[in-house]
Write a structure and sequence with these properties.
The protein folds into two domains: 2-170, Ribosomal Protein S5, domain 2 (2-Layer Sandwich); 175-305, Alpha-Beta Plaits, CATH 3.30.70. It contains ten helices and eleven strands. The chain has helices spanning 2-10, 70-81, 107-122, 129-140, 146-151, 188-193, 201-220, 236-239, 246-255, 281-294; strands at 12-22, 31-46, 51-57, 90-97, 154-160, 163-169, 175-182, 260-263, 270-275, 299-305, 312-315. β3, α2 (70-81) and β4 (90-97) form a beta-alpha-beta unit. α3 crosses α4 and α9 (246-255) runs antiparallel to α10.
Length: 316
């Protein structure tokens, strides 16, 4: 009995992973940031083939409880990659979720990154973060959410020949993030379905210039340039019909003093940006939820910071 208990402790780890917001307006499928809302995973790897999933918190009723569980799929993919799939055939997965599901705050990415980071820690950390990012991107399909979940801060990701390269940085502007969370989900698949196959040169230039300005302003601490940097022409105009009141919420946030506003990921959350020193976050939050209410949508507001650390191992 003592030996089994010791083995279980050795094969158990707790990790914390931040929720994320992708695109940041003009950075479609390449920019992302980590936020200070977190999901927690308590993972135990076991030698038999049993997979036990015990979720609490956000979206509990919709989380698959067996081998279809996304965290288990990440763990399984990792074990296969490092040649440990014959040693560990199952897992006990206990999760506490604070990140709303299917709202554009990276819930699937937190599940994937948590599984990879926890399993990697248990078997002795054979993979570095860049190698974990490659597996996470393979599972998620694109890096804009998994990269900030792993590294923290803001991330810029590029795919080249099936490989992902990510630049992670901490903004020199101290941002506050105001997230309006409406009471309806929006699937990424549906949000992608409404996008056009081709875009105009004018719209492409519009986004390239603003994405470049956004990164430059954040790196150099140029708060004065940020109001020019969050607008988008590639995805938000097409997705606004999926989020009732979106334009009104953006206008309300800016009227209340926000530097800019955007769809968080694929939605349905909308995110506004201000600075720590402005003291406007509560005013902006009220303006956003009120605008949603006028459009017939019930919403709550989260006031968050930029997470600086990414996924963290809390204890063995």
């Amino acid at each position: 009995m003592k030996k089994n208990l010791t083995d279980s402790k050795k094969n158990r780890v707790v990790v914390r992973v931040p929720g994320t917001s992708a695109n940041c307006g003009p950075g479609f499928d390449c920019l992302g940031l980590a936020t200070t809302i977190y999901n927690y995973l308590d993972l135990t790897l076991i030698r038999n083939g049993k997979v036990v999933v015990e979720p609490t918190g956000e979206g509990t009723e919709n989380i698959p409880k067996g081998r279809r569980n996304l965290t288990w799929q990440a763990v399984s993919r990792f074990l296969k990659a490092v040649g440990k799939d014959d040693e560990f055939k199952g897992a006990i997965i206990r999760m506490k979720n604070n990140v709303p599901i299917s709202r554009g705050l990276g819930s699937s990415s937190t599940a994937i990154v948590a599984g990879l980071v926890a399993a990697n820690e248990i078997v002795g950390a054979p993979l570095n973060r860049q190698e974990l990012l490659k597996l996470a991107t393979e599972l998620e399909g694109h890096p804009d959410n998994v990269a900030p979940a792993l590294f923290g801060g803001f991330t810029v990701s590029v795919m080249q020949g099936g490989e992902v390269q990510t630049f992670s940085f901490q903004p020199r502007v101290k941002l506050k993030l105001i997230v309006a969370v409406p009471d309806f989900e929006l699937s990424t698949r549906l949000a992608r379905k409404v996008l056009p196959r081709n875009v105009s040169m004018k719209d492409a230039i519009f986004n390239v210039s603003r994405a470049s300005m956004l990164i430059a302003a954040l790196v150099e601490g140029r708060e004065d340039l940020l109001p020019l940097a969050f607008d988008d022409a590639l995805h938000q105009p097409y997705r606004k019909k999926l989020v009732p009141g979106m334009s009104a919420v953006f206008d309300a946030a800016k009227s209340a003093g926000a530097l800019g506003a955007a769809i968080s990921g694929a939605g349905s959350c909308l995110i506004a940006f201000t600075t720590l020193h402005s003291g406007l976050e509560d005013k902006i939050a009220l303006a956003m939820t009120t605008a949603f209410k006028t459009a017939g949508v019930t919403a709550k507001a989260l006031i968050l910071d930029v997470d600086r650390r990414g996924a963290q191992v809390l204890r063995r």
